[in-house]
Write a structure and sequence with these properties.
343 residues, alpha/beta, Rossmann fold, binds 2-acetamido-2-deoxy-beta-D-glucopyranose
């Protein structure tokens, strides 16, 4: 009996030793993994720092996705825009912007084979001039952008559609300040040539942020835009998913700015639309699809309410499109009511 107990004790202690040894092994393996991970992180850190700026710009603007691919932006006629010319404007030193100018559709025959000088001279024909400031991703040739240009042109308006810096065949890199500078430049360029014609901004998605930024810049110079249309607008203050799930991460943890001060400072994304609409003095029209899943209609509603209290319900309008129509974030241009709404 005694002996047996002893044996058992021995075997128990042997087992314990083995367990302890295994535990040590596990720990050291774990430590090694940690050290290895740390080593990899340290090795990659400088690359991450360089890449993060690029990555961040990309997450917000997605300008490198040049959809549609394999197209010649110099040939708007390929997009059945046969009364459109492609041109380049210098927004600031070293920044060239690709821009399409579509004349009112009724002039399509007259426009055949015409040069830049002819197109520019038409800007003062008394028809309103729309500057379409597009959203992130892709170029001025994207289907929904061409769609809006066609609707406006059929209504008898001029349409200028720039690709901001870094987008399409425009040079430079996108930043919020840069995009605003580009829009301001296109406005001034148009204004110099359009005589007393109305000049209106149509911003879509990210472009609504650029539109209100630019409108406020103009207000500061004592200039009131003749109208601003905000399609699928967003409010940075409550947008959890402004553009992309990864950019959400960036807004959510501003501490990134500490680790990546350089890209953070240069590429700070504010788009203070809420503050902007309080300062704006232009007639405002909000367009939003109820089924917009990129930016929920709630944000537009909120901004509308703020804009109404800053101006009044006469100057600020809100038009919604039923979810059953399936327009989502980009499809409003298909709506047959749109021409009447814009007029
Ligand atoms: C040119 O565009 C106009 C307006 O979209 C269209 O009505 C017309 O048929 C087009 N002409 C040609 C030759 O493609």
């Amino acid at each position: 009996m005694r002996q047996r107990t002893h044996k058992k004790e021995v075997s128990t202690s042997a087992q314990t030793t083995a367990q302890v040894q295994r535990k040590h092994e596990n720990e050291s393996r774990w430590m090694k993994s940690c050290l290895f991970a740390l080593f990899v992180i340290l090795l990659l850190a400088p690359f991450t720092l360089i890449m993060s700026r690029e990555l961040f710009q990309h997450l917000v603007y997605k300008h490198r996705i040049k959809v549609p691919f394999f197209v010649d932006l110099n040939q708007p006629v390929d997009f059945s825009l046969n009364h459109t010319i492609n041109m380049y404007l210098t927004s600031e030193e070293g920044i060239s912007l690709g821009v399409w100018h579509t004349v009112p559709e009724s002039h399509w025959r007259e426009a055949q084979g015409k040069d830049l000088a002819w197109y520019q001279s038409t800007l003062s024909d008394g028809n309103p001039v729309f500057i379409y400031l597009h959203g992130n991703t892709g170029t001025r040739a994207a289907t929904h952008r061409v769609g809006v240009a066609k609707v406006l042109s059929a209504l008898g308006y001029h349409v200028l559609v720039p690709d901001y810096r870094g987008f399409g065949d425009s040079s430079g890199e996108p930043t919020e300040v840069g995009l605003t500078t580009d829009a301001l430049h296109v406005y001034n360029w148009a204004k110099e040539r359009s005589g007393s014609s109305l000049v209106v901004f149509w911003g879509h998605s990210l472009g609504t942020g650029v539109s209100t930024n630019t409108a406020v810049k103009l207000v500061e110079q004592g200039i009131v835009l003749d109208g601003v249309i905000l399609e699928g607008t967003f409010n940075m203050r409550n947008e959890k998913l402004p553009f992309h799930v990864f950019s959400w991460y960036y807004w959510k943890f501003p501490g990134w700015g500490y680790f990546f001060p350089e890209p953070w400072a240069e590429n700070k994304v504010v788009f203070p639309t809420e503050e902007n609409v309080k300062k704006m003095k232009s007639p405002l029209l909000f367009l939003h699809a109820e089924d917009d899943s990129v930016v929920l209609i709630h944000s537009a509603q909120q901004l509308y309410n703020i804009a109404v209290s800053a101006q009044n319900a006469e100057r600020v309008k809100f038009v919604t499109f039923e979810g059953s129509l399936g327009y989502l974030h980009n499809g409003l241009y298909k709506d047959p009511r749109l021409p009447d709404i814009i007029k």
